[in-house]
């Protein structure tokens, strides 16, 4: 488990452009292994999981999230 921490710290200490390159390479690798549609589904599920986790972490309701999103996109001007 110590090596996971070491690798994580090294990756987080890299410049953002290199983190982006590594993320793109990992995305490409997953795409080549499982295919385009499965990779797209995986990204959608990760996005949903992230959103649900953030909502639960902030202890907000779905209505608050929708209201916040709409308020940011449709300003009263």
Assembly state (oligomeric) = single chain
What number is the mean pLDDT? 83
Question: How many H/I helices?
Answer: 4
Low-confidence stretches: none
* Beta strands, count: 0
Beta strand %: under 5%
Gyration radius, in Å: 17 Å
Shape: extended
Largest sheet: none
What structural class do the secondary elements suggest? mainly alpha
The helix fraction, in percent, is over 70%
Distance between the termini: 53 Å
Give the helices and strands as they follow along the chain: HHHH
Give the domain tally. Answer: 2
Key features of this structure:
single chain, mainly alpha, 2 domains, extended
What's the helix and strand layout?
Elements: H1 2-13, H2 16-34, H3 36-58, H4 62-73
Helix pairs in contact: 2-3
Question: Can you tell me about this structure?
Answer:
With about 80 residues, this protein is mainly alpha-helical. It has 2 domains: about 1-35; about 35-75, no CATH class. It is about 85% helix and about 0% strand. The chain has helices spanning about 1-15, 15-35, 35-60, 60-75. Helix 2 crosses helix 3 (about 35-60). The radius of gyration is 17 Å and the shape is extended. The protein starts with a helix and ends with a helix. The mean pLDDT is about 85.
């Amino acid at each position: 488990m110590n090596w996971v921490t070491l690798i994580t710290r090294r990756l987080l200490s890299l410049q953002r452009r290199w983190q982006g390159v590594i993320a793109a390479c990992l995305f490409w690798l997953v795409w080549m292994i499982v295919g385009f549609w499965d990779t797209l589904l995986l990204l959608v599920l990760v996005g949903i999981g992230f959103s649900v986790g953030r909502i639960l972490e902030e202890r907000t309701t779905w209505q608050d999230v929708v209201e916040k999103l709409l308020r940011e996109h449709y300003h009263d001007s």
